[in-house]
Amino acid sequence: MKMSRQQGVSLVEILVALVTGLILTAGVIQIYAANKQTYRVAEASARIQENARFAMELLARDIRMAGYQGCAGQARTLVNTLNDTSSFLYNFGNAIYGFEATSASAWTPTKDSSITSPLGGRDIVAIRGMFDEGVAVTGQPSNSGDCGNSSSFTADLKVSDASVFSNGDIVIAGNCSRASIFQITNVNAGMNVVHNTGGSVTPGNATKDLGACYAGNGELAKITTRTFYIRTNPAGFPALYRKDGSNAAEELVEGIENMQILFGQDSDGDGVTDQFVRANDVTDWSRVASVRISLLLQSTEDNITTAPQTYTFNGATVTPADRRLRRVFITTIGLRNRLP
């Protein structure tokens, strides 16, 4: 009798095929997961690098310009006609100033009240000077350009372009020998910049007398105290903020977790840094020749690393509770107006 041949596949063969397929699928999933995690790490690292470059560039650009007041810099005679020349916002005799974070809620010197909502334990730096181009002063007084007139020191300033100025702006008029700081109380249609006493502007002018005439060889530009510090942004992440004068602070770069600052003091007056100290150890701010900035950046996404990433920052080794990626960046910036 002839035996029939087996048709199809056996149960054992089906099970073997299923197991083999599951193993291959698991391998593919594992490779995909590993590649995805590698991509997340690479993306977070790239974002941190990008944010660090941007933050350092912003800080370095403005710190280098600390004390810039036009043609002759801080060597010329400076007259400050504002009502409050010793306060943090209007003390333009100090090109740079800092606040050392001495605890989670305190700074030395005491933080100025204009600096709102800073994160504790982070240092603060303020730079004073001109950060925009000036315009030519074409007339004074009575738009004539006659500096021989006895009233020229108190006259309004006619400028080549008044559109860049507004009532309440703090400005500096200067040439290569003198400079005067005042607050604009009116800008009229004839491109005249008015600087009366009184009025509704704050802090206002103590006098109309600028102490000099700037017609023909002077310029007029905005001057401000620009402050950099760390605070929490609306998304809940630490970020670098910049605040100009009494204006509202604006967010610059997200993910800046900490900022520590050392100030390079020139002890012997040769324009070269001799030692780096904290803000509370600076004995003479006019002797600060450089600034050393240390930034700690974090990824905005958690669970980037497989375990909490231990890092060393500001002399301390820290193991955080999260699994964010972190990097430390350090740079030293010379103040151009203090260099030999």
Automatic annotation (TrEMBL):
UniProt cross-references to InterPro entries, sorted A to Z: N_methyl_site, PilW
Pfam families: PilW (PF16074)
Record-annotated membrane-spanning stretches: 12-33
Keyword Membrane (UniProt): yes
Keywords on record: Membrane, Transmembrane, Transmembrane helix
Any one GO biological process: type IV pilus assembly
Name of the protein in its database record: Type IV pilus assembly protein PilW
